[in-house]
C-alpha cells in the first residue's frame, strides 16, 4: 500500500464513522465521474454487486433473457439468474475473445431484455455495433467492464457506452482496494431508481437532503456500499490509476516486442488489439496450439517458479450454466479457447529482466511443442 493510501486509510479510521457514504465515498464518486464523464457512479463492494444492482434497477423478471458471452466470470450470469431470468450464452470473436456481435444479434428474441458485453483483458468490445444493436432492438446494454478501468473505445472511456458500466476494484485488477467495484449509470432517467436500489431500497437520499421526515422501503434493493476505510484505500488508488495503467501498458508492449515473430514460428498466438481500442494492459494472454501444449507450458512455468495461469471455465458448459442458462447453438471459439489460453505474469512493477525470463521459458516450451507436432506429423505420414 502506498504512503498516500496508508495516510488516507488512517484518516478514515481516525474519523470513526466507517459506514459507507461519507467523504471518501464522495471523493471516489468525483474521481469516477472524471474517469467516465457524463455518468453517475455508485461505489459498490464488488463488480458482482454492481452487476446485481443493474439487474435490480431494470427490474429483470423471471423468464426474461439476457444475452452474454460464455467466456466470462460467474458473476456476469449470477446477476441475471438471481432474478430468475435466463442467461443466453453466445460465442466470442476469435481475435479479441470479446462477444461476437453477429452471434449476439442472432440470439435476441422477443424475451430479450438486455445484453451484457465483457471487455475481456481490458480490450473494448465492438461498441459501435453493440450500441447500435441494443438501440435498434430496444434492449438494455450493460458493460461488464470488470477488467477495463481506464480503457477506451475510439478514445471514449469504456463503462460509459452502455446504459450501465460495471467496474471491479478486486485485488486482481489494475486499480484495487482488495474487494470493490462501481456501477456507472449512464442514463439520467435511471439515476433516481439506482439511488433507491443502492440505499437498500429506501429513499434515504431524500431523507439526507431533508426532503422527507423519515425514510422508508420503496423498492427492491440491497447492501452495496463499501465502508469508508475501503473507499479511502480506493480513492488513493484511483489517484494513481493513470500511472498504474501506463506502467502496465508498457510491460504489455514489451511482451509483444519480445514475442514478435514467435507467433508463426512457435505456434503461439499473440493478443489482438483493434485499432479503435485503447487497452489498459490488464492481461497479456497468449494462445497455444492445443491443450496439451498449454498444459506443458504451464508446467514449464510452474517448474521455474513463474505464476502464469489459464483463465475461465466457460459458463455454457459449467454445471450452473447448464442449469440456469442456455446456449445459442454451439460455441466453437469459446470451446477452442478453453484450455489453450495462458496469462503471462503482468503488473505495474514487473521488471524487463523478469519479462525476458518469462519469454525464454515460454519460447522453450513452445519449441518443444513444435518438435512434438512435427514428430507426430512425420509419424502419421509414415503410417
Ligand atoms: C468479467 C468479470 N465480471 C465480473 C467479475 C467479478 O468482479 P468482482 O470480483 O469485483 O466481483 C470478474 C472477476 O474477475 C470478471 O472477470
What does this structure look like?
The protein is an alpha/beta fold and 383 residues long. The protein has two domains: 3-240, Type I PLP-dependent aspartate aminotransferase-like (Major domain) (Aspartate Aminotransferase, domain 2, 3-Layer(aba) Sandwich); 242-382, Aspartate Aminotransferase, domain 1 (Alpha-Beta Complex). 44% of the residues lie in helices and 14% in strands. The protein is built from 15 helices and 13 strands. The strands form three sheets. An eight-stranded mixed β-sheet has the order 1-9-8-5-4-2-3-12, sandwiched between helices. The chain starts with a helix and ends with a helix. The model has no long low-confidence stretch (mean pLDDT 95). Bound molecules: pyridoxal-5'-phosphate. The site of pyridoxal-5'-phosphate has 14 residues, from helix 3 and helix 4.
What is the topological layout?
Elements: H1 3-15, H2 23-35, E1 40-44, H3 47-57, E2 65-69, H4 74-81, E3 86-90, H5 101-107, E4 112-118, H6 127-137, E5 140-145, E6 152-153, E7 156-157, E8 164-168, E9 181-185, H7 188-198, H8 204-208, H9 228-239, H10 241-259, H11 262-265, E10 277-278, E11 285-287, H12 291-303, H13 319-324, E12 326-327, H14 332-337, E13 341-343, H15 352-382
Parallel strand pairs: 2-3, 2-4, 3-12, 4-5, 5-8
Antiparallel strand pairs: 1-9, 6-7, 6-10, 8-9, 11-13
The chain binds pyridoxal-5'-phosphate (PLP).
Amino acid at each position: 500500500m502506498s504512503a498516500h493510501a496508508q495516510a488516507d486509510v488512517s484518516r478514515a479510521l481516525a474519523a470513526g464513522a466507517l459506514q459507507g457514504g461519507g467523504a471518501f465515498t464522495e471523493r471516489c464518486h468525483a474521481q469516477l465521474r472524471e474517469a467516465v464523464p457524463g455518468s453517475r457512479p455508485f461505489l459498490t463492494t464488488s463488480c458482482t454487486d454492481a452487476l446485481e444492482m443493474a439487474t435490480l434497477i431494470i427490474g429483470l423478471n423471471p423468464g426474461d433473457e439476457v444475452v452474454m458471452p460464455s467466456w466470462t466470470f460467474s458473476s456476469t450470469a449470477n446477476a441475471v439468474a438471481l432474478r430468475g431470468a435466463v442467461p443466453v450464452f453466445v460465442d466470442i470473436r476469435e481475435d479479441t475473445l470479446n462477444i461476437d456481435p453477429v452471434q449476439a444479434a442472432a440470439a435476441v428474441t422477443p424475451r430479450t431484455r438486455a445484453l451484457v458485453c465483457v471487455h475481456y483483458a481490458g480490450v473494448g468490445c465492438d461498441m459501435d455495433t453493440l450500441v447500435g444493436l441494443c438501440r435498434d432492438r430496444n434492449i438494455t446494454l450493460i458493460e461488464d467492464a470488470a477488467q477495463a478501468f481506464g480503457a477506451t473505445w475510439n478514445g471514449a472511456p469504456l463503462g460509459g457506452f452502455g446504459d450501465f458500466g460495471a467496474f471491479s476494484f478486486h485485488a486482481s485488477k489494475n486499480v484495487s482496494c482488495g474487494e470493490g467495484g462501481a456501477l456507472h449509470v449512464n442514463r439520467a432517467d435511471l439515476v433516481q431508481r439506482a439511488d433507491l436500489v443502492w440505499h437498500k431500497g429506501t429513499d434515504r437520499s431524500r431523507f439526507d437532503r431533508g426532503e422527507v421526515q423519515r425514510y422508508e422501503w420503496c423498492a427492491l434493493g440491497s447492501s452495496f456500499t463499501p465502508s469508508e476505510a475501503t473507499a479511502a484505500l480506493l480513492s488513493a488508488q484511483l489517484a494513481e490509476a493513470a500511472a498504474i495503467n501506463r506502467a502496465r501498458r508498457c510491460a504489455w508492449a514489451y511482451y509483444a516486442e519480445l514475442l514478435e515473430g514467435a507467433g508463426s514460428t512457435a505456434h503461439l498466438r499473440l493478443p489482438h488489439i483493434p485499432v479503435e481500442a485503447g487497452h489498459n494492459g490488464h492481461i497479456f494472454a497468449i494462445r497455444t496450439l492445443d491443450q496439451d501444449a498449454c498444459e506443458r507450458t504451464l508446467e514449464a512455468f510452474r517448474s521455474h517458479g513463474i505464476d502464469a495461469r489459464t483463465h475461465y471455465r466457460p459458463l455454457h458448459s459449467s454445471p450452473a450454466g447448464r442449469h440456469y442458462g442456455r446456449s445459442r447453438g454451439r460455441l466453437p471459439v469459446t470451446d477452442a479457447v478453453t484450455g489453450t489460453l495462458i496469462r503471462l505474469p503482468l503488473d505495474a512493477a514487473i521488471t524487463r529482466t523478469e519479462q525476458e525470463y518469462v519469454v525464454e521459458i515460454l519460447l522453450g516450451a513452445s519449441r518443444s511443442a513444435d518438435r512434438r507436432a512435427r514428430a507426430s506429423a512425420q509419424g502419421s505420414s509414415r503410417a
